[in-house]
Amino acid sequence: MSESTSPTTEPAIEPGTDAAQAAEACCGVSACCTPGEQSVDPATTARQAKTDAGCGCVTGSEGGDELPVVVIGAGPIGLAAAAHLAERGLDFLVLEAGEQVGAAISEWGHVRLFSPWRYDIDAAARRLLEATGWTAPPADALPTGAELVRDYLIPLSQVPALAGRIRTGTRVIAVTRHGVDVTRTVDREERPLLVRAVEADGTVRDLRARAVIDASGTWGRRNPLGHSGLPAPGEEQAADHITGPLPDVLGRDRHRFSGHHTLVVGMGHSAANTLLSLVELAETEPGTRITWAVRGASVARLYGGGDADGLPARGALGTRLKRAVASGAIELVRSFTITRFTVPDGGPVTGSVEVIGATPDGERVLAADVVVAATGFRPDLDMLREVRVDLDPATEAPVKLAPLIDPNFHSCGTVPPHGERELAHPEQGFYLAGMKSYGRAPTFLMATGYEQVRSIAAALAGDREAADTVQLDLPATGVCSTDLPTEDEAGEPAAVQQDQASSCCGGSAPEPVTIGIGAPAGVGFATGHLHGYSGDAERGGA
């Protein structure tokens, strides 16, 4: 039922007692145990000032220590957070909008990850699973999204430490402070966080929390197809012709693409996976045509390093895509900026949509039956309007994390280790983790998310040393430098050896890293060193 209990009131201190005398001596804190106290130093919270002064009334305020940590999202990062909280002996509750754990991943379950199983499993999760007799899948096998859910996430959700603490079909719509809105400062940190969620039957529940870890990801919040971050005129009216990223071209959605002309827009691994699936479909389904439109002049960033990629399967993806374009199986349209959509009556192709774009040579019209929007994602920030978050204006990531992941200068392999301190916000006890913590940056790795939640759980347990000891082992996830030749600029690379991939920047074998290939929660570019988007300028002719 809905939490409607008012915040508990701390007991009054009788005048003349030792406690009262201690309260009066609380370094710059007025009325130690009243709800209206303020710290004299604006940089120090009332609770911290009272704690530093030895005020006994701090303990147990609002019953906060007895409340659970609420984790939003039961994907790989959310369940990893639950595993670490369980190992720390902290009470927690996981809320998942889907009908099962890993619901978002299930939507792209047909896509195979780049990294083998040995790198796809969180350490705490593995310990909890192995204690139940669970056997890990073959370490070197590359799982699909569906296999990741079936063989890892579902079993993890059923271990004794997590079972009964995961609520599916429960969508979080807001996070706030109990009894106050975002404008209220006085007494703010004395109150627990409050999570409002809607269950499948429409029931609204308010849940009080000691802390909140928002690991809800970005799936379902795709970027628009228009330029400048805005939907193109007519984009909404053309919605029936537009699919999200990673449609199941060879399976569930086959009928929509077979014998039709598909326009794929975007330059991430989601686009690459869809393009290659369409190529395979076209081999057996006459009339299936494929056009790939990108805003930039170069696609070398997606082609990547071929056999120089630290993740062999990802290098192979770029190699196959390059060949498909060269063979004419895919028509590549560069420097195409979508300016509007038109759905004509009896247009040039029956049932088609016209996608109009600006190019260096003037306006161009691409008519297609289906448009695949593989343009990346952005976080849902509407649910966070009543908590105080400090976000970078460019990436919409936590301000301390933003410079470490900025896609203008970083690729997925150059993000340094980071943890609770970089993820903390002015709202004490609130954290963004996983893909959502990266905001609009597409450089997220699951391995990074696992380390994030390990550090957060340690901090919530009071283990500051463990929280601050952050480590992240990554392979050189692509070519050493964007100045080196790529497939776009040089001849075809040697065949990718799946079992003996090497990197020019490190050892002969990849270090632990997980990247959800094709999955919006794990898109990364195939470069291993600094440059990110800035590298495009160096390869403008590619």
UniProtKB/TrEMBL annotation:
InterPro entries: Auxin_biosynth/cation_transpt, FAD/NAD-bd_sf. Residues 484-505 are annotated as: Disordered. Transmembrane segments: none annotated. Gene3D superfamilies: FAD/NAD(P)-binding domain. GO terms for molecular function: flavin adenine dinucleotide binding; monooxygenase activity. Keywords: Oxidoreductase. SUPFAM superfamilies: FAD/NAD(P)-binding domain (SSF51905). Pfam families: Pyr_redox_3. This is Pyridine nucleotide-disulphide oxidoreductase. It comes from Thermomonospora echinospora. The lineage of its organism: Bacteria, Bacillati, Actinomycetota, Actinomycetes, Streptosporangiales.
